[in-house]
Amino acid sequence: MNLKVNIMTNNKEQNAYKKAKKRLDEERGFYMHVIIYVVMNIAITIFQYALDGNKDWLIWVITLRPLLWGIGLLCHGLWTFRRNIKWFKNTIYSKQWEERKIMEIMKDDDFKF
Question: Transmembrane residues, as ranges (predicted)?
Fold first, then answer.
């Protein structure tokens, strides 16, 4: 009996460790994305000004690139920190929604035994 409890405890600890490791990897990936975003946008802006000078079309390129990339970065951040955002917990990406939906489907007439 004691061995079974230890195996279950170790299994729970291993699952918790795997989840924590996955979450850490997601956060690390997001922070790397932020660093690359900042460094690359600064470098590209400097090179574009140095090579092309001050042209009207250049302003659009300089503003659109970080804006569009920033939207992608925002989405990456929302996905990475979705567990900490209250309104995100009720979306189709949450476990609570998934479990609630499964219960609704199981209550449906087609799934009754």
Answer: 30-51, 57-79
Asked if residue 90 lies in contact with residue 97, where contact means CB atoms within 8 angstroms, the answer is yes
| Same domain, yes or no: 93 and 50 | no
Residue identified by tokens 């659109």 is: 64
- Tell me, rounded to whole angstroms, the distance of Cα 12 from its chain centroid: 24
Q: What are 48-88's pLDDT values in tens digits?
A: 777 766 676 667 777 888 999 999 999 999 888 877 766 66
Residue 58 has which token pair? 């250049």
- The overall pTM is greater than 0.70: no
Which residues form the domain of 103?
Answer: 86-113
Q: How is residue 55 written in tokens?
A: 């042209």
